[in-house]
């Protein structure tokens, strides 16, 4: 974190070049005209006082808040460096209380097929992985990250979820276009080239979907297959989550093989709950679930 005295001597042009999201801070408080040749301290001291008062700030507070903003954004960027290489499932009990005598390591870059009849416990296993269960779920299973018990802060982190789950039913309720939805996600991830990312996600989603859609299509008008295709492309290309759980992908109306290839290309650990024997054979490993275990 930069000290105030260091920031005070920085020219705004240097700050904007080093932190590509810095301009957003000023825009958020109504400052659109920035003199790149002035230092932050001089700039903060000469800003129209009425403008600062509208934002509930003075010059000193502006610098303090800007510093906190930079620090928070850099922390979010560094969080993506918490690399997950594997998860380990340590067995618990099935529906009848019988012990699951298993310890299974799953690695990033693998596709794991989870098969079994309806009600066998496939979704329960996905839920255990998603919440990084620590003997505190009905199955009494334990999930390790990189061979170790996950930190509690990491387990319950909202900002940096380790697991992205794509459920059977994907219906949007947000009143946004596809373009605005992806831009919102990209900007929250501090992506440098937002427009390029939007184009790539829409392109990939249309390659997966049976029926194409445009960037201007409202989310609420997407079909189930289009919604699932969009979320898979978004998860692969934009989400920081290293683990992807997909429930019943055969019912999604998308190109399943391409979807899996896309996720693997982005170095994800992919777990698929399925009834489809052909899809199950596409996995590197197959877990057969019966009676919840």
From TrEMBL:
The keyword Transport applies. GO terms for molecular function: ATP binding; ATP hydrolysis activity. Pfam families: ABC_tran. It comes from Syntrophomonas wolfei. Belongs to the ABC transporter superfamily. Keywords: ATP-binding, Nucleotide-binding, Transport. This is ABC transporter. InterPro entries: AAA+_ATPase, ABC_transporter-like_ATP-bd, ABC_transporter-like_CS, P-loop_NTPase. Residues 84-293 form the ABC transporter domain. The keyword Nucleotide-binding applies.
